[in-house]
């Protein structure tokens, strides 16, 4: 993956900065969680015979970890990356680890429906445990969740109700919690812009919600999204603070107008 994107959005954290110990010279730790929708719409064969988004997602995620490990020793040491796949349920594919220690990345699973509630319910205790462990030996930064989806929440025979999946999402980003997370929502396919806005966290009155620009094939979009996540992680670790770089095939959603 070549780093060719121009930055569309670069921001400091919307949460209070983590205060480093005055006498501490512990190594830094930046926890990143890549949440991948692997429901049926991601992998089902296309009528036109073109590759499905999933066909690009799995190899691109593995390549991203290789690039994070190979490109910059600072990133390989300070970034900690976890991969979570979700469909009918959420599955921890790769526990939080440095790219330099990710010797083998398990294959992404395939599933049926799009259960938002279960993935947010899974993330909260997972991030709490990871951050508590990191803080014992590191100067921890705010956790960042990259949420990649091509569809709206749907379970059983109907859309998953907002009052089922939004409360666990709100607990994930609650600033009164010990480890509130950023959530960057990146969507394409059938996902509604309003859904992305409800998933994403806010900075300076705008949500970190991004949607595909019309005219781009879904499979190519997945490769662009994974590359942009790789660039964002690198920029966040090597720069002054959390940064988002978005490919030209996507745009920031104007959530305030929805």
Give a concise summary:
This protein is α/β, with parallel strands linked by helices.
| Total number of strands | 12
Tell me the overall shape: globular
Measured on Cα atoms, how large is the radius of gyration? 17 Å
Uncertain runs: 2-23
Mean pLDDT: 87
Main beta sheet strand tally, sense and closure:
8 strands, mixed
From the N-terminal CA to the C-terminal CA, the straight-line distance is 34 Å
Helix content: 25-40%
Order of helices and strands: EHHHEEHEEEEHEHEEEHE
DSSP summary: helix tally: 7
Given the helix and strand composition, which structural class is it? alpha/beta
Strand content: 15-25%
Domain VWFA: 31-229
Pfam families: VWA_2
Protein name: VWA domain-containing protein
Question: What topology does this entry show?
Answer:
Blueprint: E1 28-37, H1 40-43, H2 53-71, H3 73-78, E2 79-86, E3 90-97, H4 116-135, E4 139-140, E5 144-149, E6 154-155, E7 158-159, H5 162-173, E8 182-187, H6 193-199, E9 202-203, E10 206-207, E11 209-212, H7 218-238, E12 250-252
Helix pairs in contact: 2-7, 4-5
Describe the model.
A hairpin with a 2-residue loop joins strand 9 and strand 10 (206-207). The chain has 258 residues and is of the alpha/beta class. Residues 2-23 have low confidence and may be disordered. 34% of the residues lie in helices and 21% in strands. It is built from seven helices and twelve strands.
């Amino acid at each position: 993956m070549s780093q060719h994107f121009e930055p569309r959005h670069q921001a400091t954290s919307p949460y209070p900065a983590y205060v480093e110990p005055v006498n501490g010279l512990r190594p830094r730790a930046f926890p990143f969680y890549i949440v991948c929708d692997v429901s049926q719409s991601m992998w089902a064969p296309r009528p036109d015979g073109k590759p499905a988004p999933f066909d690009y997602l799995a190899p691109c995620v593995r390549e991203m970890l290789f690039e994070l490990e190979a490109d910059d020793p600072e990133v390989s040491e300070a970034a900690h990356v976890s991969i979570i796949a979700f469909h009918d349920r959420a599955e921890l594919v790769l526990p939080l680890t440095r790219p330099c220690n990710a010797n083998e990345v398990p294959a992404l699973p395939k599933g049926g429906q799009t259960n938002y509630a279960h993935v947010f319910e899974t993330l909260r205790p997972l991030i709490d445990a990871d951050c508590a462990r990191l803080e014992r030996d590191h100067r921890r930064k705010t956790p960042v969740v990259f949420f990649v989806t091509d569809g709206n929440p749907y379970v059983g025979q109907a859309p998953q109700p907002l009052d089922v999946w939004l409360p666990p999402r709100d607990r994930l980003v609650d600033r009164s919690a010990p480890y509130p997370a950023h959530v960057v929502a990146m969507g394409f396919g059938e996902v509604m812009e309003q859904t992305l806005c409800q998933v994403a966290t806010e900075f300076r009155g705008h949500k970190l919600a991004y949607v595909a620009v019309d005219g781009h094939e879904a499979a190519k979009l997945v490769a662009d999204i994974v590359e942009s996540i790789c660039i964002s992680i690198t920029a966040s670790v090597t720069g002054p603070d959390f940064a988002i770089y978005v490919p030209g095939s996507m745009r920031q959603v104007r959530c305030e107008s929805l």
